[in-house]
From TrEMBL:
GO terms for biological process: endocytosis; phospholipid translocation; retrograde vesicle-mediated transport, Golgi to endoplasmic reticulum. This is P-type phospholipid transporter. It comes from Geodia barretti. Belongs to the cation transport ATPase (P-type) (TC 3.A.3) family. Type IV subfamily. One of its GO terms (molecular function) is ATPase-coupled intramembrane lipid transporter activity. Keywords: ATP-binding, Lipid transport, Magnesium, Membrane, Metal-binding, Nucleotide-binding, Translocase, Transmembrane, Transmembrane helix, Transport. It is found in: Endomembrane system. The chain crosses the membrane at residues 256-278, 284-304.
Length: 355
């Protein structure tokens, strides 16, 4: 069921005596009151109870995708937009959804980041992923948190080089943390798309938030900057309306700069001719009227300014790439990994010698 992309759930039962329940409750209370390693102790007590269960049934819930999800993701990928999927599903279900929704193309391979519990394991997995940088990354929330804790810069650089990233078992805090890390390290705007209440923190942390009105409610839609009803509307919102807004704002800023330069140059020449006297060339009302009229006409003309039609913009999403800045690719981090590995070897050897 998980390979088919279903949300699976196993239901079981266990009959406890009163003494067994009393002992379990006492150990659970002590674990919750522990000062150190509280989560590990609570998980250990609960796992001791989850033994010898009688299997009752299995459930599989299908996540039916909305219409045109696959073409929308392919269009965003062709437009040069990197797409990350942050979900609370388990690893198998998240990988199946990524493949079925065409987030990961058929020509790409998947690199599953193993469950790590120490810094050395995280370092070895990052080295393995570095050798397969062209593969899509699938990582769980606990492994993601450990990598960010010890290798924040290296992990973000490697993940940004990957064509697609899938983070499963993510809490709302993890989602917002990933968005902030992308903003901090890439220095690029981040757009977050969500449809549930657990996506509110991620939407608020992003530069632009898109909320989808769905069956999970309107929490994401109310917290977002833009509200849509279908996921496929993202393509038109970004490729058509976003592109026009960017180009019109850029043209308007050039008009405003040109207007200011004209006024400044005329005032500078006038002051130079009259020995830099503190006299204005034009009265205040004339300056305000000139600035208003000169800027008003371009504003009204830019409202209907279109270089291509909507059909052409959606048919050729590569036009969206013209708006992106041409920046250098991130520096290779192979040397830093090697230095870190040598440092760890030296520290381990030094520890052995001391002990």
């Amino acid at each position: 069921m998980a390979r088919e992309g279903l949300r699976t759930l196993v239901v079981g039962k266990k009959v406890l005596t009163e003494e067994q329940y009393t002992g379990f409750e006492t150990r659970l209370r002590q674990a919750r009151l522990s000062v150190t390693d509280r989560e590990e102790q609570v998980a250990g007590v609960i796992s001791s109870l989850e033994e010898g269960l009688q299997l009752l049934c299995l459930t599989g819930v299908e996540d039916q995708l909305q219409s045109d999800v696959r073409p929308t993701l392919e269009l965003l990928r062709n437009a040069g937009i990197r797409v990350w999927m942050l979900t609370g599903d388990k690893l198998e279900t998240a990988a199946s959804i990524a493949v079925s929704s065409r987030l990961v193309s058929r020509a790409q391979t998947l690199f599953t980041f193993k469950q790590v519990s120490s810094r050395s394991e995280a370092h070895s997995e990052l080295n393995g992923f570095r050798r397969k940088s062209e593969s899509a990354l699938i990582i769980s929330g606990s492994s993601l948190e450990l990598c960010i804790k010890h290798y924040e810069q290296e992990f973000i650089e490697l993940a940004c080089q990957s064509p697609a990233v899938v983070c499963c078992r993510c809490s709302p805090t993890h989602k917002a943390q990933v968005v902030r890390l992308l903003q901090q390290h890439t220095k690029r705007p981040v757009c977050a798309v969500g449809d549930g209440g657990n996506d509110v923190s991620m939407i608020q942390a992003a530069n632009v938030g898109l909320g989808i009105v769905g069956k999970e409610g309107k929490q994401a839609s109310l917290a977002a900057d833009f509200s849509i009803t279908q996921f496929r509307h993202i393509s038109r919102l970004l490729v058509w309306h976003g592109r026009n807004s960017y180009k019109r704002s850029a043209n308007l800023s050039q008009f405003v700069i040109h207007r200011g330069l004209i006024i400044s140059v005329m005032q500078a020449v006038f002051s130079a001719v009259f020995y830099f006297a503190a006299v204005a060339l034009y009265e205040g009302i004339l300056m305000v009227g000139y600035a208003t009229v000169y800027t008003m006409a371009p504003v009204f003309s830019l409202v209907l300014d279109e270089d291509v039609s909507p059909d052409i913009a959606l048919m050729y999403p590569e036009l969206y790439r013209d708006l992106m800045k041409v920046c250098r690719p991130p520096a290779p981090i192979r040397n830093s990994f090697h230095k870190q590995e040598e440092y760890e070897k030296e520290s381990d050897a030094y520890t052995v010698q001391v002990m």
